């Protein structure tokens, strides 16, 4: 056990997740690579934890942050703040939500908490709908709407949450259905739930489940849900903490795969926008955002230093069409992994889109999740110079691949070759 690991164990919570039997200490990064304290170099296929959206140590972001740091780090949102207004203008316009207002927080959890506060206040109901297998953060209320059973049983949340089918397709009652039948079955389930409850405030859902192992519903699922919800005045909150900013390649936001009947009522974001600095937030129509009476700030939400990072990062992403890159390079990676998967009996499914790809591992010849196989792949890829992720809670048998969106074709091929070796070594 390294000295730092021993010190970590003696002062930090036991439940703080750590990857690898011999945990890594990352010291620096550049582009799509990071280095550990022993000087080993790794290709980063997890982008921090989808936080390094463009690249590690991107010079444009570093320059914007150091210039901002030389002026002021933070003056609170009690005063006018130019970088915050400018980033809000860009996000409001990109969100697709009409008459949009943006409230900045410091994390995805706080963004979702705020969305819940807004939705429950606006609709005067503390009943919520959430997806089975979902993850929305680690605060008291976010855990209370998280469907991933790794977290929920410990929560005594005051919210009443009802869980909707549609998050998981590889197991459960609807596993064998085609897309249209799957959607129809999930819509029936939703209607059934609504027949047994007080009118809920909102449905919160990740367009592709992140911690849940990058499980992707069929396109159009949320559009079909939306019809049922809109008839009853129930809001739709899209949790875009992992799926935003072009990561899914085909779309800038995950909700756009379900866009037939327009944008969500509220959208939450975090992770990638700050390229590693702490930005989260909520976008909502003015009518919903302004339903709170209280004068409210998030002390560090919207602070100048992170807003400067967000502006530089977003400009780089758009100017270099990293969404298009995610579509092209992610498409190649998906094809390559599917070809390998066809020959490795441990692989149940390779799924996702853009640079958000999941590989679900099972015990060969069964449908039984195999978290040990996922851990073995993590160890083997690390030994070969590649970092990847895995799902959380009850989804640790799914590998998660989410590199920075500037990944090159050569790097994609290099990473795919390492993954291929690790997957083949399972048999
Ligand atoms: N929502 C989703 C979809 C997430 O994946 C996460 C974190 O993984 C969160 C919310 C919580 O974000 P944070 O860890 O920044 O609080």
Description:
The two termini are 29 Å apart. α4 packs across α10 and α7 packs parallel to α8 (221-231). With 427 residues, the chain is of the alpha/beta class. It has 2 domains: 3-54 and 322-424, Alpha-Beta Complex (Aspartate Aminotransferase, domain 1); 62-319, Type I PLP-dependent aspartate aminotransferase-like (Major domain) (Aspartate Aminotransferase, domain 2), CATH 3.40.640. The protein is 37% helix and 16% strand. The strands form 3 sheets. Strands 4-10-9-8-7-5-6 form a 7-stranded mixed β-sheet, sandwiched between helices. The mean pLDDT is 94. It contains 13 helices and 15 strands. The longest helix is centred in the last third of the chain and has 20 residues, at 322-341. The protein has helices at 3-11, 47-50, 59-71, 82-95, 108-123, 140-144, 179-194, 221-231, 286-289, 304-319, 322-341, 371-383, 409-424, and strands at residues 26-30, 33-36, 41-44, 100-105, 127-131, 160-164, 202-205, 235-239, 266-269, 280-285, 347-353, 356-361, 386-387, 389-390, 398-401. The structure holds pyridoxal-5'-phosphate. Pyridoxal-5'-phosphate (PLP) binds at residues 107-109, 112, 135-137, 206, 210-211, 239, 241-242, 270, 280. Belongs to the class-III pyridoxal-phosphate-dependent aminotransferase family. One of its GO terms (molecular function) is transaminase activity. This is alanine--glyoxylate transaminase. It comes from Streptomyces spinosisporus.
